[in-house]
Amino acid sequence: MADEIKTVAIVGAGQMGAGIAHVCALAGYDVILHDISPDRLQAGLATLEGTLARQRSSGRISEEERQAALARVRPAKGVEGLAPADLLIEAATEDEAVKRKVFAEVCPILDPEAMIATNTSSISITRLAAATDRAERFIGMHFMNPVPVMELAELVRGIATEDSTFEEAKRFVTSLGKKIAVAEDFPAFMVNRILMPMINEAIYTLYEGVGNVEAIDTAMRLGAHHPMGPLQLADFIGLDTCLSIMQMLYEGLADSKYRPCPLLVKYVEAGWLGRKAGRGFYDYRSDEPVPTR
Ligand SMILES: NC(=O)c1ccc[n+]([C@@H]2O[C@H](COP(=O)([O-])OP(=O)(O)OC[C@H]3O[C@@H](n4cnc5c(N)ncnc54)[C@H](O)[C@@H]3O)[C@@H](O)[C@H]2O)c1
Q: Which positions make up the signal peptide (predicted)?
């Protein structure tokens, strides 16, 4: 555990929030989990419980570790319940207005010394920091999905992030067993600057009829040795998140090469957001995923 941090509050109990809660609890931190939706909060806690149980049955953690981690996680009773946090990690929907609203709510409640981190995939850390009352204690802490499995977190400093905040964040991420890649504060940082245009290009390949869903994913799995096809990966990330990141690249870098594929826009407009919605480039509502094109 990092010396200064004992209690971690996580805002947003979706795919990422539940995963971050999981690794924090296993590393010995007390965790308070919050979501605007009580259903999503319950679902996040259930996901965490299920992942810990799978890790136990596959022998990756002991029964004592599983029980201790579970006992360290509690749901917040409203935003006020986040007050004891030494570190708050914001993992709400990838939408700047949503994140600004979260910061406006939590800043008056938190200890003035508490650090705030955002798990944003693409939004400017400097801009988000300016929406808080503590730009010097604010940092980008970009975990990868699924958090319990992926080894990396990108750390991104805003223009005002103090060295002490950066060092503390490094110690914290390391204490979770993650490796760090330091990125400068540019749209989508490093991983998504490279990954997301590849996914967007796969969607263009589908849109232009070069191949169907199965052919495109098979081509990249077997032809480029990617562990997952790009369309399967897009569904896994969430198509709303993919679109938000492409929009941030397109607008932030003012370059037409980042234009979001119209087919991606259409899927998001349909509410076909990928695995979390039961349908995206694949339909997950039966036992085996079925391509939707
Ligand atoms: N999905 C990925 O692969 C991935 C990877 C790295 C980072 N991220 C980033 O993590 C963040 C969350 O992504 P996700 O995939 O977990 O999304 P998600 O849709 O699974 O979860 C987002 C959660 O935020 C909650 N929320 C929305 N407004 C809120 C508010 N005002 N207060 C509290 N909770 C609120 C929603 O109810 C939802 O449960 C985004 O910034 C995203 O870019 C995602």
A: none
